[in-house]
């Protein structure tokens, strides 16, 4: 009898048998049969069929009012159970990558993997992938992570970027990389903390520019803030290819000079040995690599 009650509730809520049939993936005649069966069991007419379309009788209205919240609770309980059965996937990423690249794309992975509940945390500190509950990390470095399984996600390049408005206002002064040394430069502290990271000094030297007295208009602790300052039109920041690619594609940033400095650091996907072969980690790693490969193809890398 539960099937008949469910069918009646759907027909009453939808207002017709056809929509109820579509909702329940059955035929219209099956809906009609179930409702007839329920009416015979109750000894009451639930629909008035004298008109063009069936209309709820007084008894049908009473039953519908009582059934709708009950079936709503049942559906809610099933949905809650499905959510509680989801497998969590915890990802740790460098702050700049998490905010500038991963956050924009994470929903695509979530939509393709509805059985996984994705959790993303961002930090510039090295997270212990054995002691914590992190399944997979994305790190920026040389790829040497003792005791961890690492796979290359993407190599990176560094080059100056600024907003289109800043470039337009200063185009006459920016004839070549040498003139850039006297422009408004925005720095982030990460390059000063690690000499291997791409820096203004390294890029200018690669361009053949003497930079013994290099001065910065602003210095930020977080590379995201340096990039936001450049987007706001405050000057040039040193962009990392995959971190600035979206802003360049959106027209928020431009790269006026052809020279791109290959970085000794790359982005790596890392995980503990125990979790490296987990199906959920493998799914995420493969998705990351496909996503990055697709973008390399689009940008000609």
List keywords for this structure.
D-Maltodextrin-Binding Protein, domain 2; elongated; 3 domains; Arc Repressor Mutant, subunit A; 5-stranded mixed beta sheet; single chain; 19% strand; 12 strands; 301 residues; alpha/beta
Description:
- The chain folds into three domains: 2-84, Arc Repressor Mutant, subunit A (Orthogonal Bundle), CATH 1.10.10; 87-155 and 265-299, D-Maltodextrin-Binding Protein, domain 2; 157-262, D-Maltodextrin-Binding Protein, domain 2.
- α1 (2-14) packs across α3 (28-42), α2 crosses α3 (28-42) and α5 (95-112) packs across α11.
- The longest helix has 27 residues, at 58-84.
- The chain has helices at 2-14, 17-24, 28-42, 58-84, 95-112, 164-170, 177-180, 190-193, 200-206, 223-231, 241-249, 273-276, 279-299; strands at 47-48, 55-56, 87-93, 116-122, 136-141, 148-154, 157-161, 185-188, 218-220, 236-240, 261-262, 266-272.
- The strands form three sheets. Strands 4-3-5-12-6 form a five-stranded mixed sheet. Strands 9-8-10-7-11 form a five-stranded mixed sheet. A two-stranded antiparallel ribbon has the order 1-2.
- It is α/β, with parallel strands linked by helices.
- It is elongated, with a radius of gyration of 30 Å.
- The mean pLDDT is 86.
- It has 13 helices and twelve strands.
Structural class computed from helices and strand pairing: alpha/beta
| CATH architecture classification of the largest domain | 3-Layer(aba) Sandwich
The CATH H-level superfamily of the largest domain is: Periplasmic binding protein-like II
Q: How is the main sheet built?
A: 5 strands, mixed
CATH C-level category of the largest domain: Alpha Beta
Strand sequence of the main sheet, in spatial order? Answer: 4-3-5-12-6
Number of domains: 3
Bin the helical content: 40-55%
Radius of gyration: 30 Å
- Total number of helices: 13
Secondary structure tally: strands:
12
Spatial shape: elongated
